[in-house]
């Protein structure tokens, strides 16, 4: 299944990709970062991280790894926690909090946007 992560406010997608590749929870997925144009109505430019997962069961691991990355950034010298927007099929969710309920909401929203089979197509329009 293919999905996109959009890192808002600062274009730190490459940092997120490094984190995810080194995170044992999410390392099974494939990642690549691309510069992104602002979406309509946005001022800043972020990065888009393209993610390929074997199946829907990897969504929870991915969400946990992204939450951990945000937490590490908040505790680091930057002290920033950019919003990460996940887009899969017709669903878009923003990761803005670092609690387990957030992860459950993300997984529920994204899995509701399609069936549990591998998606061979690109995410979104």
Walk me through the structure.
- This protein is an alpha+beta fold and about 120 residues long.
- The protein has one domain (about 1-90, about 105-110): Alpha-Beta Plaits.
- The chain contains three helices and five strands; from the N terminus they run βαββαββα.
- The chain has helices spanning about 15-20, 60-75, 100-110, and strands at about 1-5, 30-35, 45-50, 85-90, 90-95.
- It has a five-stranded antiparallel β-sheet, with helices on one face.
- It is globular.
- The two termini are about 15 Å apart.
- About 30% of the residues are buried.
Kindly report the average pLDDT value.
78
Briefly note the structural class of the backbone: alpha+beta
Largest sheet entry: 5 strands, antiparallel
Low-confidence blocks of residues: 116-125
Number of domains: 1
What is the alpha-carbon Rg in Å? 13 Å
Order of helices and strands: EHEEHEEH
Number of strands: 5
| Level-1 CATH class name | Alpha Beta
Beta content comes to 15-25%
CATH topology (fold) name = Alpha-Beta Plaits
Shape: globular
Query: Helix amount, in percent?
Result: 25-40%
**Arrangement of strands in the largest sheet:** 2-3-1-4-5
**Whole-Å distance between the termini?**
15 Å
**From the 3D coordinates, which CATH architecture would you assign?**
2-Layer Sandwich
Number of helices: 3
